[in-house]
Structure formats: structure tokens, C-alpha cells
């Protein structure tokens, strides 16, 4: 950008200084001697009048005054006058050149700055169009104009009671999740508007109270700003196994994140619900999560670590394909925000790798650990928080699984609802991958790419 800004400066500054030629005293002579437009009358002709003088002096009289070197007599009388005149002329032309250069430089500099500013403005405009896009005065950023065609459709969220009448479909550490339907597209009024999920990220302290001091408010404002910048990144990520963020609305007390509503809900609701998930559906979900994770860890630059991978953050689309939700946002949300209630702590703790407790550093291998727990949940059919594990010696799903898988009867680890479906061998292979992913030493865990290829190799 700086190079682009300086380019016009260089281009403009260069031609403004005039070309400098060395001055010699014969300049006047060379210009006037060769061509005289017409002959002068003989009375005025200095050549004929001074023919005798000419014989003595090879140069006509009128040239003698201009010539300084070849007529010693005249030169001696005029030499000092001519020298000072030429010095005066030289210093004058030098001053002129300096002045022209300075003016040229300043003009070039100003032109460079102006064109640099215009170029950078254009550049930012293009970047904003591509990234921050389509901001409306109400504060909504639309990331998917294909789904949300008009910013006015989200205008109801600018009102204080915009959410009050909406159905609450979930409650997370950061706030409620609401369901709403957008008005139909005016160009296609017969088709009902899109159903969306609105996730509210509240501005509040970890214990849920309002900020009491100025310092606390300042920190919360900073946190809200950081989340906003993460939202801008997340809004542009697209992968078939990641739940896309369609829009973002900023309100003084919260952020509202707009997603497509997943009518099949989240994996935890499905696994705990009445609806049966057969093995092939579970296997496809596992493959989908692994593929979304590979994109976040390996394909996306910079790498995105989810930090809160758990069945509640795996949503299922119309085709029961897995969509990872809440990716890219956990970084700026302290644990107290994501794991706020006692039941959440138990549930979420089951997915957190052991080294995180010691280092408090989240790595991609922490996500792999959480993914391993989800794989285990898909085959075992029980959450880590299931009371079943509290009654075992191991008290943890991961440790219980290791023990059963090394016993004589590893099939005992499989969900009783799935036993006898003919896929026991495949399910045991998936449990082996789960154990591999949940190794205590993060270095021994596979990468998301390896997990994907291991899962894909299981033939059904
Ligand atoms: N886009 C969506 N479609 C349908 N249900 C959703 C959607 N987003 C969230 N939910 C529901 O709301 C619940 C709470 O979501 P969230 O605030 O992300 O909390 P959590 O911390 O449990 O992930 C989810 O577990 C899910 O059941
Ligand atoms: Mg969530």
C-alpha cells in the first residue's frame, strides 16, 4: 500500500525538474551565426562596413561582444564584467532549478499523499464489501445475503422488546437462543420466510450480575469488542459441516447472532430424546464432525480451535448431517461464561482434556480429546455426565471405556440399542479411535486429518 501511495509521488516529482545543460559562452554565437533570414541593406550591413576590420578580426563586430575567448583585446577590457554576469546568470539559474525542484517535490508529495489516501479508501471499501458487508444503520451485519436478503427483515431486533415475543429454544452459558421466522421474500410471497435461531450473548460479569465498578464496565466493553471482531471472522467461514453465521446485530447490552434454525436440534437432545439414531446415522455424524474439525484446524488460516466441542454444539440439519456450532467464538468467552451452571460444569468437564487443567492452554489436541469423547458418546449412547459413570470405579466415561475395551468383552461398551445391528466390528473400530483421541498425552493423539482418514477407512 505504501509502495502504491509513493508511486505517484515518484512519477510526479521526476519530470518537474527541468533538464540541466552546461552553459558555455559560445551559445549566443552558435544560435545567431549560421542562418540570417534575409540580407541587410549594404549601408546597414556590418559585414561590408567593417570588411577591413574583418580582415584583422575573423569575427564580425556584433559577435565580438558576445564572444569572450577569441578576441584578447576586447576580452581583457570586458572579462571581469562578463565573468560576473555569467556568475550572476549561473547562480540565478541554480536558484531557479532549486526552486523548481522544491516545488516539484512538494507537489509530488501532496499528489502522492492524496492518491495514497484515495487508494487506501478504495481498498478499505472493497475489503469492507467483501468482509464486513452490507451494514445497515441499525447495526446489522449480514454475512449471507443469499439467506437474509434485506436488512429490514432484522430491524425488529433493534427494538428493546424485539425478542420478548419469541420462543426460547435453548439456553447456553451466554444467554438464550430464540426462534423466529423472517417475512417472506416480496419477490416470492408464497414461500414462507426463513426460520432462524437467534443466539443472545449477554454483556455481564461471570456470575451473571451487572457490572458494579467503572473498571468492570470497561473490561466488559473490551470483551464485547473482542467478541465483535471474532464474529466478523466467523461470519465468513463456510463448510458443509459448520453452522454458518448468517448475520450479527449489535445492541448496547448484547450481541445477537443469527443462524439458520436446525429443526433436528442438537446432538445431545437427539441422543437423550425419544428419536432413535441408528448406527449409520451416528457414523455419518462422526464423519461430519471430523471433517468440520479438519477444516477449522488445518484448512482455515489461521487455525481455529473450537474449545467447547460437545454434543450441545453439534446441530443436525434436515439431512441429519452434523453442523458444528459456536466455532471461533469460545476464545473470548471465559469458561465462566460457557460453563456457568453446576450441571454445565459436570457436562462440559467430561469433554475437557486433562492437560488443560494444568496448562490452561487450549490446543488443537484439546479439541481432538473432546472429539474422542463425542465418538465414545455416539457408540456408548451415554453422556459423560450420565449417573451410570458415577457408580463405576472409574467415575469417568474415558477411563471406563479404556477398561472395557481392554477386557475380554469389549462389545459391552456398545449402546445396547445398537447391539445386534451387524455393525459391531465397525463400532468397535470407532471406539478404538475414540481411545486414541483421548490419550492422556496430547502428543499421542491423532490430528484431525488423521482422524478423518481413519474414520473414512471403516467400511460398512
Ligand atoms: N441454530 C440452531 N438451531 C436449532 N437449535 C439451536 C440452534 N442454536 C442453538 N440451538 C439450541 O440451543 C441450545 C443452546 O445453545 P448455546 O447457547 O450455543 O448453548 P451451549 O453452550 O449449550 O452450546 C443448543 O444446545 C441447541 O439445542
Ligand atoms: Mg452452543
TrEMBL record:
<dbReference type="GO" id="GO:0016020">
    <property type="term" value="C:membrane"/>
</dbReference>
<feature type="compositionally biased region" description="Low complexity">
    <location>
        <begin position="75"/>
        <end position="85"/>
    </location>
</feature>
<keyword id="KW-0433">Leucine-rich repeat</keyword>
<dbReference type="InterPro" id="IPR008271">
    <property type="entry name" value="Ser/Thr_kinase_AS"/>
</dbReference>
<dbReference type="GO" id="GO:0005524">
    <property type="term" value="F:ATP binding"/>
</dbReference>
<dbReference type="InterPro" id="IPR011009">
    <property type="entry name" value="Kinase-like_dom_sf"/>
</dbReference>
<keyword id="KW-0325">Glycoprotein</keyword>
<keyword id="KW-0812">Transmembrane</keyword>
<dbReference type="GO" id="GO:0004672">
    <property type="term" value="F:protein kinase activity"/>
</dbReference>
<keyword id="KW-0677">Repeat</keyword>
<dbReference type="Pfam" id="PF00069">
    <property type="entry name" value="Pkinase"/>
</dbReference>
<feature type="region of interest" description="Disordered">
    <location>
        <begin position="31"/>
        <end position="94"/>
    </location>
</feature>
<keyword id="KW-1133">Transmembrane helix</keyword>
<feature type="signal peptide">
    <location>
        <begin position="1"/>
        <end position="22"/>
    </location>
</feature>
<feature type="domain" description="Protein kinase">
    <location>
        <begin position="163"/>
        <end position="460"/>
    </location>
</feature>
<feature type="transmembrane region" description="Helical">
    <location>
        <begin position="102"/>
        <end position="127"/>
    </location>
</feature>
<dbReference type="InterPro" id="IPR051564">
    <property type="entry name" value="LRR_receptor-like_kinase"/>
</dbReference>
<keyword id="KW-0732">Signal</keyword>
<keyword id="KW-0472">Membrane</keyword>
<dbReference type="InterPro" id="IPR000719">
    <property type="entry name" value="Prot_kinase_dom"/>
</dbReference>
<keyword id="KW-0675">Receptor</keyword>
<protein>
    <recommendedName>
        <fullName>Protein kinase domain-containing protein</fullName>
    </recommendedName>
</protein>
